[in-house]
Amino acid sequence: MPGDRIIFGAAAIPEPDRDWLAAAERLPIESIWQGGHLLPPTSTGEAITRLALMAAWTERVRVGTAVLQLPLYPPVIAAKQLADLDSRTGGRVSVGVGVGGEFPKEFEAVGVPLKERGPRTDEAMEILRALWNGGPVTHHGRFFDFDDLELRPVRSPGADAPEMRPGGPPLLVSGRKAPAMRRAARLGDGWMPYLMSPDAYARSVAAIEDEARAAGRDLAGFEWMMYLYCCVRRDGDRARNDVEAFLGGAYGDKPRAMLDRIAPSGTPEEVAARLQKYVDAGVRHFVISPAAPDDTLEVVTLAAEEVLPRLTLPVPAAPGGVAP
Description:
Elements: E1 7-11, H1 18-25, E2 31-34, H2 47-56, E3 62-69, H3 75-88, E4 93-98, H4 104-109, H5 117-132, E5 137-140, E6 145-149, E7 171-173, H6 178-187, E8 190-191, H7 198-214, E9 223-232, H8 236-247, H9 256-262, E10 265-266, H10 268-281, E11 285-290, H11 296-307
Parallel strand pairs: 1-2, 1-11, 2-3, 3-4, 4-7, 7-8, 8-9, 9-10, 9-11
Antiparallel strand pairs: 5-6
Organism: Actinomadura rugatobispora
Enzyme class: oxidoreductase
Protein name: LLM class flavin-dependent oxidoreductase
C-alpha cells in the first residue's frame, strides 16, 4: 500500500513562469508539474518544452510532465530528451504519461491512428525503460523496430556533474479508466489519475493491486498520486465560484455538486476535509492544480501551508483487522 507520509506538488498553471516557480519552490512542496499538447486549440505549451523550462528554473523540487501524451512521440526521441533532462538535473525528472485523444487532429498530424494510442503507449513505455537501463537495446515490436541502439544521456562537464538516475525517471501513468489502471499495474512506477472522486480512487487502488498480483508484480515503491484540480481561498464562496468557472464549461457544464466530488474547493479547513478522504482512499502525493483564473500561487500557498498540515495518515489496522 501507499507510503508512510503525505506530500504535495503543484501544477504550474497557466504556464511555467520563473518568478512563480521561485516562489513555489520556497513552499513546503516537493514537486512541480506541467503537461501540454502539440496542437491545442489555445496558445498553450508542449509538455517536454515546459518540462525543460521547469528544470532550468528550479533547483530543489522534482519536475514532471502531467502529462506527456506518449503515443504522439517517437519513443527513442522522447527517451533521449527525458534522459538528458534527468541527467542535467541530477535525477529530478518524473514522467507522467497518458494516451491523450482529446484533440484527434494531433494524431492525424503525426500519422498515429487514434485507435492505436493505447498499445503504442504500452510499447513506448517498454522502450523508454529499456533504453534508460543502459547498454545496447534491440526491439522488434508491433509499432517500432530497431537493433542495437544505445542511449547515452548528456552530462555537464566535471567529475562531480549530476547524471541520470539508474534506470531513468519514474513513469507515472495517468488516466481514469480500466486500461490505464492495467497499464499502471504492469508498466508504471506510479498512478496519477485526475477528475476522480475518493471512492473511485479507492476502487482504482484495488484494481491496480489485483492486476499487479495477477501479473506477479511487486508494487513496493509504487507511487500513489492524484492530480487534483482544486481551489483554496480564505473566501470559500470565491473558491467554489472559481472552480465552477474554471472547470464547469470545460468538462460539460457539470453541476457544482458533481464538481465538488472531483475538484475540492473552499477554505483551507473545508478542502482539508475533502483531501483527507483521498488520503484514506490511498493517495500519498497530491499534485495541486489550481482551478482558478488568477492568483494561482495563493491557491498553492494555502494548500501547502494550511491544508497539508491538517492531513493525517490512516491508523494501521492491528492483527485481525481491528484498529488499535
